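Entry 14. Ran structure prediction on the chain below.
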Amino acid sequence: MYTTKDIAVVILNWNGKPLLKQFLPSVIEHSEQAAIYIVDNASTDDSVGFVSKEFPKVVVLQNSENGGYAKGYNDALKNVKQPLLCLLNNDIEVTKNWLQPILDDFNSNENTAIIQPKILDFKQKTYFEYAGAAGGFIDKYGYPFCRGRIFDTIEENKGQYNDSIDIFWASGACFFIKNKVFKSLNGFDENYFAHMEEIDLCWRAYNANYKVRYVGVSTVYHLGGATLSNTNPKKTYLNFRNSLFTLAKNTDSRVFSRTLLRMLLDGIAALRFLFQLKPKYFLAVLKAHVSFYRNLGRILKQRKQLAKRSSYYKINSIVWSYFIKKHKTF
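Output, structure tokens:
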């Protein structure tokens, strides 16, 4: 039976001293007996000195470079021994008793490997937050969506997702995973740098017959956009590119047709950006596709190394459902 002492709350940080000052106290207050780590991705501000001075019981793990979310965690987690890991963004406020429901679910579902709590918006606390909301799903063309958030439509929290259910992917903003599973899956794919690496990891976990769960009676509040805002073209580039990486690596034998159709849909999205007079976003999609072609050999090699490749999807096309049929909520 897991207890709070078995949890390591691991917070990745890069030049986030103001965020640590604002959000770390809630983590310390509401995570009694859990070990708390700060993973610093070669910050140039005073993050490390601040944490060491103000929160001496927090363990600081220093990386030699800013390798992004994926490499940052991969490097640091080699030194973390607790059996349960909570990978937590540095812009998250946790709540009282947030850990116990997660422990209860791990203890009652032996095959559960990954869990996400309810993620609400720190700025509008009655609404779900973009990055994860009430648990993630995917369509057959690799487009991710959440209960509580589909594309840019975000639902108000009215208790409609206070359940605990199996989901397909959990948000990297607050991502619980068994340490042994993380290591058995070789951690995050460092080629992603940031964005969607957690979806890739969840897909690989699914292909290895593990469960991913959402526990809605545990709640955290996410500021969001602290590293890259949703309106940043670099984030658009990473999301489109990494989504193609994920689909081509993990889906079933119909990989060619699925990936080709996905790229066609991306092209439509790029034209939409152009008509909206957003040339930087148009170029971001094109750049994402060029990067995908350049990395295709490596992706296919990774695909061959997977023991199992399968397709999981909640609906055929979230794009068709949302933009054509006008279904705006889960």
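The chain has a mean pLDDT of 96. Will compare against last week's run tomorrow.
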